[in-house]
Amino acid sequence: MQATRTPFGLHWPIADQDVNERLSWLIAVNTYEAEQRRLYRTASEEEEMRLMQLPLPTRQAFSLFGLLLGILVPAAIFLKIFGYGFSRHIGNTPVMFLICVAMNTACAIFGHRMGGLLSKGINEYERASWTKMLLYSMLIGTCWGAATGAIGGLAFFGIGAIFGAFCAVPVAMIAFPLFTSLHRLLARGGMIDARHFWPLVFGVTMTIAMFILGM
What we know:
Mean pLDDT: 83
Strand order of the largest sheet: 1-2
Number of helices: 8
Order of helices and strands: EEHHEHHHHHEH
Strand content: 5-15%
Number of domains: 1
Distance between the termini: 75 Å
């Protein structure tokens, strides 16, 4: 009886076996190959992904991006507007400082959560045209900004929800397409190496935060 090696690393007989078993094996092989073509745009991408020392899946990457965006950018906004509770002219009280901390914490926690939830379609759109990807990333940026900004603003006596969303949406509509574009260039098979991810995510979020502080 002859045998062959499947893509799964298993030996499988190709003669004298039941027809249904052979058919099932062929279907499994075709499914595996289709999945490989869907995951990797070129033949070398799979090899590059396997060489990553600490690969991060897309959901984790966007969760961490949402976390840092929810920490650094609101902190820059609160520092710019309220002096983060330490301004001599605006809200120089412990209460204002605690409110800023509460809003910042809410933005960080909810931003992390929303980043992961909204990343569901990223892998597919990163393989589509650049136009579709950018439009999709702007859409999820809008959703992230509206939800995260509103939740963070609730800590400001409730009335800050509208102001929070108003501030967060424009920022997220820029941040998400920028991060998604760079993630597309560096990711392989839905994974990005941590050695590339951390400089990327800090670079994007800190650049936006510094731009806000410099306005």
